Amino acid sequence: MCHVIVTCRSMLWTLLSIVVAFAELIAFMSADWLIGKAKPSGSEDGDNRTGGSQEPYRPTLGIYWRCTRIPHMQFSRRDTLCGPYAENFNEIASGFWQATAIFLAMGIMILCTVAFVSVFTMCVQSIMKKSIFNVCGLLQGIAGLFLILGLILYPAGWGCQKATNYCGNYASAYKLGDCSLGWAFYTAIGGTVLTFICAVFSAQAEIATSSDKVQEEIEEGKNLICLL
Protein backbone atom coordinates (compact mmCIF):
# COMPACT_ATOMS: atom_id res chain seq x y z
CA MET A 1 0.00 0.00 0.00
CA CYS A 2 1.26 3.45 -0.93
CA HIS A 3 1.66 5.88 1.94
CA VAL A 4 1.90 9.56 1.08
CA ILE A 5 4.40 11.03 3.53
CA VAL A 6 4.95 14.80 3.54
CA THR A 7 7.31 16.44 6.01
CA CYS A 8 8.72 19.93 6.16
CA ARG A 9 12.26 18.71 5.55
CA SER A 10 11.37 16.40 2.66
CA MET A 11 9.34 19.13 0.93
CA LEU A 12 12.14 21.65 1.39
CA TRP A 13 14.63 19.18 -0.13
CA THR A 14 12.31 18.56 -3.08
CA LEU A 15 11.83 22.28 -3.74
CA LEU A 16 15.56 22.97 -3.48
CA SER A 17 16.32 20.10 -5.86
CA ILE A 18 13.95 21.53 -8.46
CA VAL A 19 15.26 25.09 -8.03
CA VAL A 20 18.89 23.96 -8.37
CA ALA A 21 18.19 21.99 -11.56
CA PHE A 22 16.39 24.91 -13.20
CA ALA A 23 19.04 27.43 -12.08
CA GLU A 24 21.88 25.41 -13.57
CA LEU A 25 19.94 24.75 -16.78
CA ILE A 26 19.09 28.43 -17.28
CA ALA A 27 22.69 29.49 -16.55
CA PHE A 28 24.08 26.92 -18.99
CA MET A 29 21.81 28.14 -21.81
CA SER A 30 22.46 31.83 -21.14
CA ALA A 31 24.80 34.13 -23.05
CA ASP A 32 25.57 36.19 -19.94
CA TRP A 33 28.73 34.40 -18.80
CA LEU A 34 31.06 37.13 -20.05
CA ILE A 35 30.11 40.79 -20.51
CA GLY A 36 32.35 42.22 -23.20
CA LYS A 37 34.09 45.56 -23.34
CA ALA A 38 31.99 48.55 -24.39
CA LYS A 39 31.75 48.95 -28.17
CA PRO A 40 30.14 51.55 -30.41
CA SER A 41 26.76 50.54 -31.79
CA GLY A 42 27.09 48.78 -35.11
CA SER A 43 30.28 46.88 -34.29
CA GLU A 44 30.27 43.14 -34.02
CA ASP A 45 32.92 40.84 -32.54
CA GLY A 46 35.47 43.66 -32.44
CA ASP A 47 34.77 44.92 -35.98
CA ASN A 48 33.89 48.62 -35.94
CA ARG A 49 33.78 49.26 -39.68
CA THR A 50 29.99 49.45 -39.99
CA GLY A 51 29.70 52.95 -38.51
CA GLY A 52 26.32 53.90 -37.11
CA SER A 53 25.51 55.36 -33.73
CA GLN A 54 28.36 55.77 -31.28
CA GLU A 55 26.20 54.91 -28.28
CA PRO A 56 28.24 52.21 -26.51
CA TYR A 57 26.88 48.80 -25.68
CA ARG A 58 28.36 45.67 -24.11
CA PRO A 59 27.92 42.35 -25.97
CA THR A 60 27.70 39.15 -23.98
CA LEU A 61 29.23 35.74 -24.58
CA GLY A 62 28.28 32.37 -23.14
CA ILE A 63 29.74 28.91 -23.54
CA TYR A 64 28.07 28.44 -26.94
CA TRP A 65 25.65 31.40 -27.03
CA ARG A 66 26.17 35.11 -27.65
CA CYS A 67 24.24 38.39 -27.79
CA THR A 68 25.42 41.30 -29.92
CA ARG A 69 24.06 44.46 -31.56
CA ILE A 70 22.65 44.07 -35.07
CA PRO A 71 24.39 46.47 -37.48
CA HIS A 72 22.27 49.28 -38.99
CA MET A 73 19.40 48.67 -36.54
CA GLN A 74 20.57 50.98 -33.77
CA PHE A 75 17.27 52.90 -33.78
CA SER A 76 15.17 49.79 -33.18
CA ARG A 77 14.27 48.52 -29.76
CA ARG A 78 14.90 45.03 -31.06
CA ASP A 79 18.47 45.70 -32.12
CA THR A 80 20.12 42.92 -30.11
CA LEU A 81 20.57 39.50 -31.65
CA CYS A 82 21.00 36.47 -29.40
CA GLY A 83 21.72 32.98 -30.62
CA PRO A 84 24.33 30.22 -30.81
CA TYR A 85 27.62 31.22 -32.43
CA ALA A 86 28.52 27.53 -32.90
CA GLU A 87 26.50 25.37 -35.29
CA ASN A 88 27.89 22.17 -33.78
CA PHE A 89 29.88 21.05 -30.76
CA ASN A 90 33.25 21.24 -32.54
CA GLU A 91 32.71 24.95 -33.28
CA ILE A 92 32.59 25.92 -29.59
CA ALA A 93 35.31 28.55 -29.22
CA SER A 94 37.70 26.67 -26.94
CA GLY A 95 38.56 23.09 -26.10
CA PHE A 96 38.26 24.08 -22.45
CA TRP A 97 34.74 25.37 -23.10
CA GLN A 98 33.90 22.11 -24.86
CA ALA A 99 34.99 20.24 -21.73
CA THR A 100 33.01 22.73 -19.63
CA ALA A 101 29.91 22.07 -21.74
CA ILE A 102 30.31 18.31 -21.29
CA PHE A 103 30.77 18.44 -17.51
CA LEU A 104 27.98 20.96 -16.99
CA ALA A 105 25.61 19.01 -19.25
CA MET A 106 26.31 15.79 -17.33
CA GLY A 107 25.76 17.50 -13.99
CA ILE A 108 22.55 19.17 -15.17
CA MET A 109 21.15 15.90 -16.55
CA ILE A 110 21.72 14.24 -13.18
CA LEU A 111 20.13 17.20 -11.35
CA CYS A 112 17.09 17.18 -13.64
CA THR A 113 16.67 13.43 -13.09
CA VAL A 114 16.88 13.88 -9.32
CA ALA A 115 14.42 16.80 -9.46
CA PHE A 116 11.95 14.61 -11.38
CA VAL A 117 12.38 11.69 -8.96
CA SER A 118 12.10 13.95 -5.91
CA VAL A 119 8.47 14.75 -6.75
CA PHE A 120 7.59 11.07 -6.26
CA THR A 121 9.39 10.66 -2.95
CA MET A 122 6.13 11.52 -1.19
CA CYS A 123 4.83 8.09 -2.28
CA VAL A 124 8.02 6.09 -2.76
CA GLN A 125 10.66 6.31 -0.05
CA SER A 126 12.84 3.34 -1.01
CA ILE A 127 14.06 1.55 -4.10
CA MET A 128 15.61 -1.93 -4.03
CA LYS A 129 15.57 -1.71 -0.22
CA LYS A 130 17.65 1.48 -0.28
CA SER A 131 16.46 4.92 0.74
CA ILE A 132 15.62 6.94 -2.36
CA PHE A 133 16.70 10.07 -0.48
CA ASN A 134 20.19 8.68 0.08
CA VAL A 135 20.47 7.56 -3.55
CA CYS A 136 19.37 10.99 -4.78
CA GLY A 137 21.75 12.68 -2.34
CA LEU A 138 24.64 10.61 -3.70
CA LEU A 139 23.68 11.54 -7.27
CA GLN A 140 23.52 15.21 -6.31
CA GLY A 141 27.01 14.98 -4.84
CA ILE A 142 28.29 13.45 -8.11
CA ALA A 143 26.51 16.17 -10.10
CA GLY A 144 28.15 18.80 -7.92
CA LEU A 145 31.60 17.38 -8.73
CA PHE A 146 30.84 17.58 -12.46
CA LEU A 147 29.71 21.17 -12.06
CA ILE A 148 32.89 22.10 -10.17
CA LEU A 149 35.06 20.58 -12.89
CA GLY A 150 33.17 22.54 -15.54
CA LEU A 151 33.47 25.83 -13.65
CA ILE A 152 37.19 25.32 -13.03
CA LEU A 153 37.86 24.64 -16.72
CA TYR A 154 35.73 27.51 -18.01
CA PRO A 155 38.17 30.39 -17.18
CA ALA A 156 41.00 28.48 -18.90
CA GLY A 157 39.25 29.24 -22.20
CA TRP A 158 39.30 33.02 -21.80
CA GLY A 159 42.34 33.25 -24.04
CA CYS A 160 40.59 31.85 -27.12
CA GLN A 161 40.05 34.06 -30.19
CA LYS A 162 36.32 34.43 -29.56
CA ALA A 163 36.91 35.64 -26.01
CA THR A 164 39.65 38.11 -27.00
CA ASN A 165 37.27 39.60 -29.59
CA TYR A 166 34.95 40.42 -26.72
CA CYS A 167 37.47 41.08 -23.95
CA GLY A 168 40.46 42.60 -25.72
CA ASN A 169 43.97 41.34 -26.40
CA TYR A 170 44.88 41.29 -22.71
CA ALA A 171 42.41 38.46 -22.05
CA SER A 172 44.04 35.09 -21.43
CA ALA A 173 43.50 31.94 -19.38
CA TYR A 174 42.03 32.98 -16.01
CA LYS A 175 42.43 36.68 -16.94
CA LEU A 176 39.29 38.56 -17.97
CA GLY A 177 40.93 41.45 -19.78
CA ASP A 178 38.27 44.11 -20.46
CA CYS A 179 35.37 41.75 -19.74
CA SER A 180 33.42 41.21 -16.55
CA LEU A 181 31.58 38.15 -15.31
CA GLY A 182 27.85 38.00 -15.97
CA TRP A 183 24.98 36.75 -13.84
CA ALA A 184 25.00 33.30 -15.49
CA PHE A 185 28.47 32.48 -14.13
CA TYR A 186 27.49 33.52 -10.61
CA THR A 187 24.21 31.60 -10.92
CA ALA A 188 26.14 28.48 -11.89
CA ILE A 189 28.40 28.89 -8.86
CA GLY A 190 25.43 29.48 -6.54
CA GLY A 191 23.66 26.46 -8.01
CA THR A 192 26.75 24.33 -7.43
CA VAL A 193 26.87 25.35 -3.76
CA LEU A 194 23.15 24.58 -3.40
CA THR A 195 23.70 21.21 -5.07
CA PHE A 196 26.00 20.11 -2.23
CA ILE A 197 23.57 21.57 0.32
CA CYS A 198 20.82 19.46 -1.25
CA ALA A 199 23.06 16.38 -1.14
CA VAL A 200 23.62 16.88 2.60
CA PHE A 201 20.01 17.82 3.29
CA SER A 202 18.74 14.64 1.61
CA ALA A 203 19.85 12.77 4.73
CA GLN A 204 17.60 15.00 6.85
CA ALA A 205 14.71 14.32 4.48
CA GLU A 206 15.28 10.58 4.88
CA ILE A 207 15.36 10.90 8.69
CA ALA A 208 12.15 12.92 8.67
CA THR A 209 10.21 10.41 6.55
CA SER A 210 11.38 7.38 8.56
CA SER A 211 10.96 8.83 12.03
CA ASP A 212 9.11 7.04 14.83
CA LYS A 213 6.24 9.50 14.52
CA VAL A 214 5.73 8.53 10.90
CA GLN A 215 5.85 4.83 11.74
CA GLU A 216 3.22 5.32 14.43
CA GLU A 217 0.84 6.97 11.98
CA ILE A 218 1.43 4.18 9.45
CA GLU A 219 0.56 1.61 12.12
CA GLU A 220 -2.63 3.55 12.80
CA GLY A 221 -3.65 2.91 9.20
CA LYS A 222 -3.22 6.42 7.84
CA ASN A 223 -2.39 6.71 4.13
CA LEU A 224 -1.76 10.47 4.12
CA ILE A 225 0.79 11.58 6.70
CA CYS A 226 1.72 15.25 7.03
CA LEU A 227 4.25 16.28 9.64
CA LEU A 228 5.95 19.61 10.30
UniProtKB/TrEMBL annotation:
Bilayer topology term: Multi-pass membrane protein
One Pfam family hit: L_HMGIC_fpl
Membrane-traversing stretches: 12-35, 96-120, 132-154, 183-203
Leader sequence segment: none
Entry superkingdom: Eukaryota
Biological process, per Gene Ontology: single fertilization
Primary localisation category: membrane
Protein's cellular compartments: Membrane
Alphabetized UniProt keyword annotations: Fertilization, Membrane, Transmembrane, Transmembrane helix
GO terms for cellular component: membrane
InterPro entries the record matches: LHFPL
Family: Belongs to the LHFP family.
Record-given protein name: LHPL2 protein
Gene source species: Origma solitaria
Gene assigned in the entry: Lhfpl2
